[in-house]
Design brief:
The protein is α/β, with parallel strands linked by helices. The chain contains ten helices and eight strands. The mean pLDDT is 94.
Length: 300
């Protein structure tokens, strides 16, 4: 018996890296898995379905159930087809894991509008489109009186929580995913849908080049950057056992952290309109009382 027995799970971007590890881990816990991936390059170009087929073969060879989905999760109709495939194949959909993403790293002064749009498109639209189709299905079920124990697991990043130099597009998209998740949890709980997000640190095509030394596989001992280390958290968040919603979890190796978003810190209320020349002293006092923000990754 597994923690996800009889659940139907979609994992986007499941051909490689974290998505691959998640799909295999869900199957090992009894889930039937839609392995979504178009096989694009790290920059979002081209297609290659062989990684997705290899994941399905790995799952089925171990006795699990999985099928490939080749739809673009950032395409409205494609995302709808992906949700429909789960329902048509196994009669239901229980969990949606939004993992697909690309990078086009540049300093802001050198970033093109195409590089900005491409990253925002895949990460944000590639999350919204499948979520929107999935929640429409779950809301209809709920309104019809069918009990729903649905789960959404979105993939943010430490870059989205704290910022990352040369990744303004990626960081902005990941920050948007974090906020979207809190809103989804607030709006969808009435229908039996829980939504959470993760900020993983693990070896992938995105991190191997940018953080080569950190991501290098050790010769022996615990491989803290193995993407499989992240998957148990994702599987639990995607299971009916999960009893939290609207939260962000940072995970790296065996270290699991609950992260907190923007909170109001120190406050001063004059009770009247300010004069411009008095703002500076008040801000100085407020900043002195407030917690120091986390450092931006890569900042000097």
């Amino acid at each position: 018996m597994g923690i996800c027995d009889d659940r139907v799970v979609i994992v986007t971007g499941a051909g490689r890296g974290l998505g691959r590890a998640h799909a295999i881990a869900f199957a090992a816990e009894g889930a039937r898995v839609i392995v979504n991936d178009i096989g694009a390059s790290l920059e979002g170009e081209g297609t290659d379905m062989s990684p997705a087929h290899e994941v399905v073969e790995t799952i089925t060879a171990a006795g699990g159930q999985a099928v490939v989905n080749a739809d673009d999760c950032a395409d409205w109709d494609g995302a709808g087809n992906m949700i429909a495939q789960a329902i048509d194949t196994w009669g239901r959909l229980d969990t949606l894991v939004c993992n697909a993403g690309i990078v086009r790293d540049r300093m802001i002064v050198n970033m093109s509008i195409e590089e900005w749009d491409a990253v925002i498109h895949v990460h944000l639209r590639g999350m919204f489109c499948p979520v929107r189709h999935a929640v429409s299905h779950w809301r209809e079920m709920s309104k019809a009186g069918t009990p729903v124990q649905a789960r959404i697991v979105n993939t943010s990043s430490g870059a989205g929580l704290f910022g990352s130099v040369a990744q303004a597009n990626y960081s902005s998209a990941k920050a948007g995913i974090a906020t979207f998740t809190t809103i989804a949890a607030a709006e969808l709980g009435r229908y039996g849908v829980q939504a959470n997000a993760i900020a993983p640190s693990a070896r992938s095509r995105m991190t191997e080049e940018a953080f080569a030394e950190m991501m290098a596989k050790p010769e022996s001992g615990f491989d803290s950057m193995d993407p499989a280390n992240v998957s148990p958290l994702v599987v639990w968040l995607g299971s009916s056992a999960c009893d939290v919603s609207g939260r962000m979890f940072e995970i790296a190796g065996g270290e699991l952290t609950v992260c907190d978003g923007w909170q109001r810190a120190a406050t001063f209320d004059k009770g009247a309109q300010y004069e411009p020349d008095e703002i500076g002293a008040i801000v100085t006092d407020l900043i002195r009382e407030a917690p120091q923000p986390a450092a931006v990754y890569g900042a000097q």
